[in-house]
Design brief:
- This is NAD(P)/FAD-dependent oxidoreductase.
- It comes from Zoogloea dura.
- Keywords: FAD, Flavoprotein.
- Its cofactor is FAD.
- Pfam families: HI0933_like, HI0933_like_1st.
- This protein has about 400 residues and is of the alpha+beta class.
- It has two domains: about 240 residues, FAD/NAD(P)-binding domain, CATH 3.50.50; about 140 residues, Beta Barrel (Elongation Factor Tu (Ef-tu), domain 3).
- It contains 13 helices and 21 strands.
- Strands 1, 2, 7, 8, 9, 10 and 20 form a seven-stranded mixed β-sheet that branches. A seven-stranded antiparallel β-sheet has the order 17-16-13-14-15-12-18.
- Helix 1 packs parallel to helix 5, helix 1 runs parallel beside helix 13 and helix 9 packs across helix 12.
- The radius of gyration is 24 Å and the shape is elongated.
- Bound molecules: dihydroflavine-adenine dinucleotide.
- The site of dihydroflavine-adenine dinucleotide (FDA) has 37 residues, from helix 1, helix 2 and helix 13.
Length: about 400
């Protein structure tokens, strides 16, 4: 990385050169502000590089408030409206990055997530942004001078700035640089926090359930999963520790998230194994079948799963021997398989962090802290968490853009 000669005073310093930080730095720099971006990592934007299986699901065609969890569900509306997926597509179009759409409106790079990193770096170069990387931040203090409202002591020396943008992301994947620095800065300046927890994360099953289902590790099928107010239809995947796949990652954000506005999560996940049809009617049509129920179910479900599901419930007789009441109960179990996970795989495997800096502390227009002029938070560090499908990057772009216009 090339380093520009560095004065010690900047208009704007951005901490964290990830998705939101680079977007913000580029915007502020292109407005003519002098900007320094610093990051403690050796490699630039590792999270973008590994995202979307290496192809970065950089946005979604259908982005709205309903795709985000926050204690303050309205907060994200303004920034998302001012920087839309269309704006990001226009940006990548200018950089000649080829992309394609996958199901559920998800947009991915054709070639590599590195294209997005290179584009953001080029945008920063356009804004004459200076870099300090790897750079360890030792302390932030508030100064009195309006042009030097913050003083930063770092491994590259002392810097001062009028606006400080915190873009340090969440806690997921600590081995590529996640840290709680942003939360500590928020607390230092008296800003409230919403307790962070892993989200978009595989769920683990209690030992008695795992004993039955771990044999199925690697098996996946289409299902609807619900938890609290979260309801999704995508693939469910069995793992050696429990359940994963997109549908489980989605509901994991609602699991035990009772205290989230608009997302009354719960302890239990309910899975509909017949997502596309009325299972009671389907059973009725086959009520006279002499096949074992497990064999009949293989019309819709993988054989080993159907067998394990029926064995667990003692449903080991030919279908025609079940009476109407029993078929009602079977239909109920198939359309509402109730699972009570006993945990998650934690930050090591989570795609994002739920919670963070309480958005009630921030302006939804500029991302600036109400009680600390000049202090901004962008991206995942704050309590705005997107569903799986490009929504988290869209929030990084939109919040980074909003602060970049104001800082
Ligand atoms: P981000 O994490 O990108 O950047 C934070 C930066 O701050 C990092 O560069 C870090 O090194 C730096 N930093 C942290 N602590 C610091 C400290 N103490 N000092 C200095 N610097 C510090 N989303 C999506 O929309 N589509 C997708 O395809 C995926 N895929 C995906 C895959 C995987 C495996 C993960 C883990 C996550 C995703 N995501 C995703 C989520 C997405 O990557 C995430 O929401 C954004 O990167 C958040 O952007 P931020 O800029 O807020 O944080």
């Amino acid at each position: 990385m090339t380093h520009l000669p560095r004065p010690s005073r900047y208009d704007v310093i951005v901490i964290g050169a990830g998705a939101a930080g680079m977007m913000c730095a580029a915007q502020a720099g292109q407005r003519g502000r002098s900007v320094l971006i610093l990051d403690h990592a050796d490699k630039l934007a590792e999270k973008i590089r590994i995202s979307g299986g290496g192809r970065c699901n950089f946005t979604n065609l259908d982005v709205g408030m309903g795709n985000y969890l926050s204690r303050n569900p309205q907060f994200c509306r303004s920034a998302l409206a001012r920087y839309t997926p269309g704006h990001f597509l226009e940006l990548i179009g200018r950089h000649g990055i080829a992309w394609h759409e996958r199901e559920h409106g998800q947009l991915f790079c054709d070639d590599s997530a590195q294209d997005i990193i290179d584009m953001l770096r080029a945008e920063c170069e356009d804004g004459r942004v200076a870099w300090a990387m790897p750079c360890a931040l030792q302390a932030v203090t508030a100064g009195d001078d309006p042009e030097a409202r913050f003083v930063l002591d770092t491994s590259h020396g002392r810097f001062e700035c009028a606006s400080l943008v915190v873009a340090t992301g969440g806690l997921s994947i600590p081995k590529i640089g996640a840290s709680p620095l942003g939360y500590k800065i928020a607390e230092q300046f008296g800003l409230a926090m919403v307790a962070p927890k892993p989200a978009l994360v595989p769920l683990t099953l209690p030992p008695e359930e795992l004993a039955i289902y771990k044999e199925l590790a690697g098996m996946a099928f289409d299902a609807v999963a619900e938890c609290g107010s979260g309801r999704f239809r995508e693939n469910l995947l069995f793992t050696h520790r429990g359940l994963s796949g997109p549908v489980i990652l989605q509901v994991s954000s609602y699991w035990q998230a009772r205290d989230y506005g608009g997302a009354d999560g719960g302890n239990q996940v309910t899975v509909n194994l017949f997502p596309a049809e009325d299972v009671r009617a389907w059973l009725e049509e086959r009520a006279r079948s002499k096949s074992l129920l497990a064999n009949l179910l293989t019309e819709r479900l993988p054989k080993r799963f159907a067998q394990a599901f029926c064995d667990q419930r003692g449903w080991n007789k030919p279908t025609h021997q079940f009476n109407g009441k029993e078929l009602d109960a079977i239909a109920e179990a198939l359309s509402g398989w109730a699972i009570t996970p006993n945990g998650t795989l934690g930050y090591a495997k989570a795609e994002v962090t739920l919670g963070g800096v309480d958005t009630r502390e921030l302006s939804s227009k500029t991302m600036e802290a109400r009680k600390q002029p000049g202090l901004f938070f962008v991206g995942e560090v704050m309590d705005v968490t997107g569903h799986l499908g490009g929504f988290n990057f869209q929030w990084a772009w939109a919040s980074g853009h909003a602060a970049g216009q104001a800082a």
